Amino acid sequence: MKRWLWAAALLPVVGVAVWLVPDSVDVVVITAIHPDGTVEWVDAEIRPAEENSSNVHELSQDRHVSKLAEDVVIRTAVGCGTPSGLQLSRNGLGAVECGRADFLAMQSPPYAPRLTFNGDGEITEVAGRYHP
């Protein structure tokens, strides 16, 4: 009986710890990209707009910070350096791969990207959206 009670008490604690690290965040506004690969962002949402179809709105001022994973995959709609042709995936996210160095050197971050994380909370994918 005692063993079963310990298992029942431990399960919610482990479940909460695992839940705190999201798999991905669908829409963010990147507020800073640091040379060491640290990225700062706030949660956001896409709202309809009269001009350019939509705008991204920050949901809060709560800043999140995470490092880029060594094997991070970065995709934008037109690339990170010299723009190449517009390429989008089926779900509307950028499909042009960028190198880590090009991403870190960007003058302005990708528009409304989706961020995907590994179990350590590192960013494994940055997928920007096209915005005219």
Helix and strand topology:
Layout: H1 2-19, E1 24-25, E2 28-33, E3 38-48, E4 54-58, E5 64-76, E6 96-98, H2 100-104, E7 111-117, E8 123-129
How do you describe this structure in short?
This protein has helices spanning 2-19, 100-104, and strands at 24-25, 28-33, 38-48, 54-58, 64-76, 96-98, 111-117, 123-129. With 132 residues, it is α+β, with helices and mostly antiparallel strands. It has one domain (24-129).
N-to-C terminal Cα separation, in Å?
63 Å
Helix content: 10-25%
Structural class: alpha+beta
SS element count, helices: 2
Unreliable runs: 14-18
User: What is the global morphology?
Assistant: globular
Largest sheet: 8 strands, mixed
Number of structurally distinct domains: 1
Strands, total number: 8
Mean pLDDT comes to 87
Query: What proportion of the residues form beta strands (DSSP E)?
Result: 35-45%
Describe the structure.
The structure is a single chain. The protein is of the alpha+beta class. The protein has one domain (24-129). It is 17% helix and 41% strand. The protein is built from 2 helices and 8 strands, in the order αββββββαββ. The chain has helices spanning 2-19, 100-104, and strands at residues 24-25, 28-33, 38-48, 54-58, 64-76, 96-98, 111-117, 123-129. Strands 1, 2, 3, 4, 5, 6, 7 and 8 form an 8-stranded mixed beta sheet that branches. The longest helix is centred in the N-terminal third of the chain and has 18 residues, at 2-19. The chain is globular, with a radius of gyration of 18 Å. The N and C termini lie far apart (63 Å). Residues 14-18 have low confidence and may be disordered.
